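Friendly challenge for the regulars: who can give me the structure tokens for this chain first? No prize, just bragging rights.
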Amino acid sequence: MKTSERLTQTPAPGSRMVKFRGDAVTIVLEVPEDHVGSAWLRTNIGQAAVARREIVRKVLHHESPLGRDWFDIPMRRTAASRFEVVVPLAEVGHFEAKAYFLPEGAVDPVWPKGENTVFNVEPADCCCGNILYNAFVRQFGPGKAGSVEMDPETAECVQQMDRDGYTVIPRSGTFRDLVRELDFIFGELGCRYLQLLPVHPTPTTYARMGRFGSPYAALSFTEVDPALAEFDPRATPLEQFIELVDAVHARGGRLIMDIAINHTGWAAALHETHPQWLSRDEEGRIEMPGAWGVTWADLTKLDYRHQDLWVYMADVFLTWCRRGVDGFRCDAGYMVPMPAWTFIVARVRQEYPDAIFFLEGLGGKVSVTRDLLNRANLDWAYSELFQNYDRGQIEHYLPGAMEIADSDGSVIHFA
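First reply, four minutes later:
Bragging rights claimed.
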């Protein structure tokens, strides 16, 4: 590729920036005044459907991507040495662009030095005011003020049953309990997103953590825990979950649900239907994931070397989108390989282009977070501000977090 230091592009080659659907970008190419010819922009902006189709077909049909999403746009000369083009960003996705100069009578373009300029385009309605209320459904209703009070005789009975190996599970908060709080969450607090901890069934016998089981130990990725619903012959637990979704939307809010696709709970349905997807060590033992030196012994790690697992998980996300969910918190998302996320995001956005993917990258490398936001096109990532305790630590951390938010994807601070 022929390059020239005498060509200058703005925004600079190699730069990355976060934009929002509905924005427009002006790209300028400046050339020496003695250059005669035309200028063009090579880009895949506006071709999200083509790019996603190639990503998906690579996995489903083993077709090599051919870059059919790339094309050239003529740039307008606005001065003797200046060319411009204004490009609308009408789609959500990861896009790239670079201007080049074509000398008169030549067939080989001349490029400014540097890599492509990157535009990571997010849904329009998350350009500002992204205040999330994080809700654990179990803690509403009778458990809202803390643990449910028990008289001494009942408490002693429960403790004795614990010692005897029985499973004692008190009443949980429900989806309908949470619905009764929405006017406060959206009306008084002014939140725009309701983010739910996982709502899937969890282990209540073996590998049970706490009284209810860990919410991150899903036994099924498409079911809801019946303990989170009222017993009502008129509405199944899933229908009561959809009541919550509808109530959030009726208040102008968005609902994000937490899905931990890196692993399952012990004795999950996938253990029976797809045991080959479990990650095992050389001795055949199922691997247990962990972070910060802690092993999560109630979980079983999934093996993302299997591309049919990617397809299955994309269908899981699509199932929840069809039920009205607006986005997903991707628990331990940095543990899932980037090619798998690239496929999942592309597949979901073929049908739901504004779906939000919120990366939980805590414990992973910052470089992995950047790659997943940028190249795999996840939207948001957690800030790690909560792990910085004094002014010096905060001053050290914030510039990097702000730079990621400007270039790769929004960084969400939390309490």
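The CA atoms of residues 242 and 280 lie 36 Å apart. The chain has a mean pLDDT of 93. Your move, everyone else.
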